[in-house]
Amino acid sequence: xxxxxxxxxxxxxxxxxxxxxxxxxxxxxxxxxxxxxxxxxxxxxxxxxxxxxxxxxxxxxxxxxxxxxxxxxxxxxxxxxxxxxxxxxxxxxxxxxxxxxxxxxxxxxxxxxxxxxxxxxxxxxxxxxxxxxxxxxxxxxxxxx
Amino acid sequence: xxxxxxxxxxxxxxxxxxxxxxxxxxxxxxxxxxxxxxxxxxxxxxxxxxxxxxxxxxxxxxxxxxxxxxxxxxxxxxxxxxxxxxxxxxxxxxxxxxxxxxxxxxxxxxxxxxxxxxxxxxxxxxxxxxxxxxxxxxxxxxxxxxxxxxxxxxxxxxxxxxxxxxxxxxxxxxxxxxxxxxxxxxxxxxxxxxxxxxxxxxxxxxxxxxxxxxxxxxxxxxxxxxxxxxxxxxxxxxxxxxxxxxxxxxxxxxxxxxxxxxxxxxxxxxxxxxxxxxxxxxxxxxxxxxxxxxxxxxxxxxxxxxxxxxxxxxxxxxxxxxxxxxxxxxxxxxxxxxxxxxxxxxxxxxxxxxxxxxxxxxxxxxxxxxxxxxxxxxxxxxxxxxxxxxxxxxxxxxxxxxxxxxxxxxxxxxxxxxxxxxxxxxxxxxxxxxxxxxxxxxxxxxxxxxxxxxxxxxxxxxxxxxxxxxxxxxxxxxxxxxxxxxxxxxxxxxxxxxxxxxxxxxxxxxxxxxxxx
Lengths: 145, 517
Known about the structure:
The structure holds 2 protein chains of 2 kinds.
Chain A: E1 3-9, H1 13-27, E2 32-41, H2 50-81, E3 85-93, H3 95-105, E4 110-114, H4 120-136, E5 141-144
Parallel strand pairs in A: 1-2, 1-4, 2-3, 4-5
Helix pairs in contact in A: 3-4
Chain B: H1 2-22, H2 29-48, H3 59-74, H4 78-81, H5 83-91, H6 105-116, H7 119-132, H8 135-160, E1 163-164, E2 170-171, H9 174-184, H10 190-225, H11 230-245, H12 250-277, H13 279-295, H14 302-318, H15 324-329, H16 337-344, H17 346-365, H18 396-406, H19 410-441, H20 445-464, H21 467-509
Antiparallel strand pairs in B: 1-2
C-alpha cells in the first residue's frame, strides 16, 4: 500500500529542510508518494475594490503560475531526481486549514512542514499556521526546525 | 474612429459644465459654479422629477416602487424565501474549495456595499427625515424590503451576461445584460437601450457617485474647521482620487478599503449605543414613525410628502433598480449566476432597513426636529419646505448634531467617517462610470484617462456647488439610470425566473450541495 506524505512548502530554506526530511523519511518506506504543496494565503472575507474584483481571476492565475514555477515545480523535480514518486499542488486559502484538507482529500498519512520561519512573508505564512496545524490537523504533523 | 468621434462628442458635452464653471473668477467661484450648474441641469432634473398631473407625486418614485413590488410578486417574495440561503452563500457554505482565490460572494457583497453605504445613510436619511418627518422612515424601510427583489433581479443578470475576457478580467452590468439579453430574446433595441443606460450611468457616477459625496464631505469638514471655499476641498479630494484611479496608488485605496468597514461598524455601534441608552424612547420613536407615515405629522405634503421622501432616499441610498450594483456584483466567481442575486438582496437590507433606520431613529430620539407643543405636529421652517431643526441643521449636519447630543465627541468621528465614506463611494462610482464609459467608447488607456480626468473635475464642482442643485442633479442622474434599467428588467425578468426555478429545484433535490457543513 502506497503511503502518501504531504509536504507544506513556503519557498524558504525552512521549507527546503522539510523537503529533505521528507526525502529521508520516504527512503525508509517501500511505497511512498510525496506531495509538495504550496498554499497562497487568502481569505474570502477581505475587502476589495470593484477594480480589484474585476481583475481577481487574472491575478489568481498569475499567483498560481508563479508559485508553481518558482516553488512547487523545482521541489517536485528535486524529489523526482532523487527517485521519489512525487506530485505538486498550489492552492489558495488559510494555510493550516488548506494543508489539512488537502491531506484528507488525497488520503495522506502525515504532514511535514517547516518551523515558523524567522522573517517577513514566510513568517506570515508559516508562523501561526504551523501552530494551528499542529493543534488541529487530522493526521500526524512533523515540524522541521 | 467611431469610438473616437463619440468620445469627443460626449466629452465636449460633459465638459461644458466644468469649463463654463471653472473659467470664472476664483473669488466668486462657488457662486458661479452653483449658478452655472443649476442652470445647465435644471431641465434634466425637472423631467426626472415631473409629477403626475394634478398631484405632487413624482412619476419616478412610483416607477421604482412599482418595479420593486412587481419583482417581489413575480419571484414569489424571493427576498424572504431565500434569505437564509443568502446568508449561507455569504458564509461560503456553498463555495467550491477549488475556487479559493477567486472573488467570493462576501467580497462581491462588501464591494457593492462600500459603494452604497455612505452618505446616503448619513446625509440622505437626514434629508428624508428633515423634510418628510419620522414617517419617511417607514416608507424607507418598506422601499428597502421591496428593493431587495429589484437588486436580486439585476445582479443575477449582471453575472449571467457579463463579459469574460481572454486575460481573465470581467466587465458586467446592465449595459451588457440589456444588449445580450434582448438579443437572446430576439427583442429589438437592446443596443440602443444599453447605450442610453451607459450615458445615464456616467451622469450618475458624476452626480450621486461624485458631486454629492464631495459636497457633503466639504460640508462636514467646514462644519468642524470653519467655513472656507468648497473648491479647496474639491481640489484636495480630486487630487487624492486622481492619485488612486489614474496614478494607480493602491496604498490609498487599500487603507480606505480596510478603514471604511471599521467606520461602518463604528457608526452602527454608536447608533446602537445611543439607542440602548435611550431605550425608553424607542417605542415613542417608532410611534412617531408609524403616525408620521400615515398622517405626515404636519410635514410639507403630509403623508404623501413623507412617502415621497422615504422612497426617494431609500432608492438613492440602496440603489435597488438603478443597476449600479450589477456592475459591482458581476465579478464574483460562481457557476450559478443566481447565487449572486441571492447575496445581493442582502444589500438593501443592510443599507436601508438596518443602517438608514438606525440613523433615522437617532435623529428622532435626539429630538433635533422641533415639535409644536400644542398640536404635537412638527414645525416647518419659514419657507414651509422642511421641518425646523435645532440650530437649523440639515443634511449631514443634522445627523452629526443628533449623534453629538448622545455622544459629544462623535461628530468628529462622523466627520472622518463621512470623508472616508465619500472617498470610497467615489472610488466605487468611478469604476461604475468607467465601465459605462468603456462600453460606449471601447477599452483603452486614452479613453479611460479622459473619463477619469472628467470625474476628478466634477469632484471640484460638487464640492463648490451648494447642496440643493447638487442633490437634485445627483438624484435625477441616478434615477435616470433606473428608468432604462427597470424598463429592460421587465423584459428580462423571465430569464431570471427560469434560473430561479432551475436552481430552487436542484437545491431541493440535493443536487446543489453544501461544501461546508
